[in-house]
Amino acid sequence: MHWPDERMAAHWAELVRNWKSPEITEVVAAYRTVGVICRTGITDDPWNALLARIHESMAMCELSSAFENLPDKPVIKIPVIYDGPDLNHVAQVLGLSESAVVQAHTRQSYRVYAVGFLPGFPYAGYLPQILSGLPRRSRPRVRVPAGSVAIVGRQTGIYPCQSPGGWHLLGRTEMTICDLHCGFFRFRPGDRIQFVASEGGVIPKNLDSET
């Protein structure tokens, strides 16, 4: 299902999740689209009833301003150590000081528009104009540490586990983003997050040697 904007998609996805329908196994929102995944073997009557409910809810939401006054979710605060290996490079490219980059990144909250690439990786946005427009690194890193906080284009995200990656690393959080062993995922589309500058450990400075 397609929606005019990301916020409407996220809110409609939450609405459908709250139905607790036995025919629906999962609801996945990604930017302006929502996928409703159903169990197999649904007979005609329940299936037709579910389709009718979906189309009716979408029509009502599109015709009314049903989402305009919906309250936002609480903001999830994420402590970040801003000592990333790309912080200085980002500051130079954007014509800012490192502290100005940190201030701009922490000044506002972001909405999680999709979760993917890696299990639990939040695609959040949108960055303020002053930080927007950076392309991916020309040479992605082979190993990006778990918890790395990064930006590219208009988006910001967090690497939940060590992996290759081509985003620009500003810092790192010690917050657990996901745990596959116990099925824990910190974020879902529609959540709001805000980064908070924190003091603590040091980001390795030799990551570029692994590119």
Structure description:
- There is one protein chain.
- The protein is an alpha+beta fold.
- It is built from 4 helices and 13 strands.
- The protein has helices spanning 6-17, 44-63, 87-94, 98-106, and strands at residues 24-30, 33-38, 75-81, 110-115, 122-125, 141-144, 148-152, 155-158, 163-165, 168-172, 178-179, 184-185, 192-198.
- A 7-stranded mixed beta sheet has the order 3-13-4-5-8-7-10, covered by helices on one side.
- Strand 11 and strand 12 form a beta hairpin.
- The longest helix is centred in the first third of the chain and has 20 residues, at 44-63.
- The relative contact order is 0.18.
How many structural domains?
2
Task: Write down the overall mean pLDDT.
Answer: 86
CATH top-level class of the largest domain: Mainly Beta
Q: Might you state the CATH topology name of the largest domain? A: Cyclophilin
Determine the fraction of residues in helical runs and give it as a percent range. Answer: 10-25%
Q: What structural class do the secondary elements suggest?
A: alpha+beta
Name the CATH architecture of the largest domain. Beta Barrel
**Which descriptor suits the 3D outline?**
elongated
- Number of beta strands: 13
What percentage of the residues does DSSP assign to strands (E)? 25-35%
Strand order of the largest sheet: 3-13-4-5-8-7-10
Distance between the amino and carboxyl termini: 39 Å
Oligomeric assembly: single chain
> Topology as H/E string?
HEEHEHHEEEEEEEEEE
Low-confidence stretches: 201-211
Tell me the name of the CATH homologous superfamily of the largest domain: Cyclophilin-like
The helix tally amounts to: 4
Biggest sheet record:
7 strands, mixed
